[in-house]
Structures are given as structure tokens and as C-alpha cells.
Amino acid sequence: MLSRALIFFLLYSTLGATPQQLEKLNNEEIRKLPSEADVLVINFWATWCEPCVEEIPVLTKIQSRHKKITVIGISMDESEKENEVRRFIKEHAMGYRVALWTGDDFETMVNSIDPNWDGPIPATFIFQKGKRIYTKTGPITEAELLKHLSH
């Protein structure tokens, strides 16, 4: 019989995902994210958000199949729920970069990403060479992502 550790390793290897660490990002660090990668997908989500959970396999698939694209999921869960978010990341095999928002001014953070975004999640933003090229509030599909990532 296979050990739990081996099963865990095989599961992550098969999915193309690796166990993720949870970063903590404040407003300023989030504002700088678009300049960190040529093509960046930022997805704002929370553990309690059903549509957000449904997007996880899509984002994991995009990250594993398109190495030139950087995907980062930013959890909007409260910072004191850090341990719950860490468990959630493991349980859902999130195969992309994941962070917990630790900022103190939601409006400033939102405006730094897209001044037209009024804050509902899930919300996905695609940046190319630092410039926002697509915004989607609500669940995003693989087809939608691929359409806008191919520009």
C-alpha cells in the first residue's frame, strides 16, 4: 500500500502542481505586481467564494501549460485566517503563486489594479508588459483566459 506522502507527491506531480507557500502582500507590493512579469494573471479570490473555488482548476491548468504566463491568486480572506487559507491551498492543489492580502486600505489596492473595479470577487486581471489588457469580474473560463492571453 502506498504511503500518504507518496500519494501526495504523485497527486501533485500528476497535476503539474507543487505545494505552494502562502505569500503576504500589502497594497504597495500588489501595485508593483504587473511589472514583475511579461504576462501576468492576477485573480482575487476567497476561500468562502464558490465561483472562486470553481476557477482554481482553470488557473492551475493555465499555469502548468503556459510557462511564460505568471498566475497569482490573491486571497481576500482576513489575515487572521492565514492557517485556513494555507490548508485550503493544499486541499485544492493550487498550482500557482498564492498570496494573502495584508493591506489596510481596500480602495487604494483596488484602484492600483483597475480604477473601474468596485471590488467584487472573483476578479481576474491580465497584464502584458505592465499594462492591463483585460478585466473580468465573476468566474472566468479557460476559453476566456486563452482568448485574452493570445494577444
What does the model show?
- The chain has 151 residues and is α/β, with parallel strands linked by helices.
- The chain has one domain: Glutaredoxin, CATH 3.40.30.10.
- It has six helices and six strands.
- The protein has a six-stranded mixed β-sheet with strand order 1-4-3-2-5-6.
- Helix 3 links the parallel strand 2 and strand 3.
- The longest helix has 16 residues.
- It starts with a helix and ends with a helix.
Brief sketch in words of this structure:
The protein has 6 helices and 6 strands. It is an alpha/beta fold and 151 residues long.
Write the layout of secondary structure elements.
Blueprint: H1 4-15, E1 22-25, H2 27-32, E2 39-45, H3 50-65, E3 69-75, H4 82-91, E4 97-101, H5 106-113, E5 123-128, E6 131-137, H6 142-149
Parallel strand pairs: 1-4, 2-3, 3-4
Antiparallel strand pairs: 2-5, 5-6
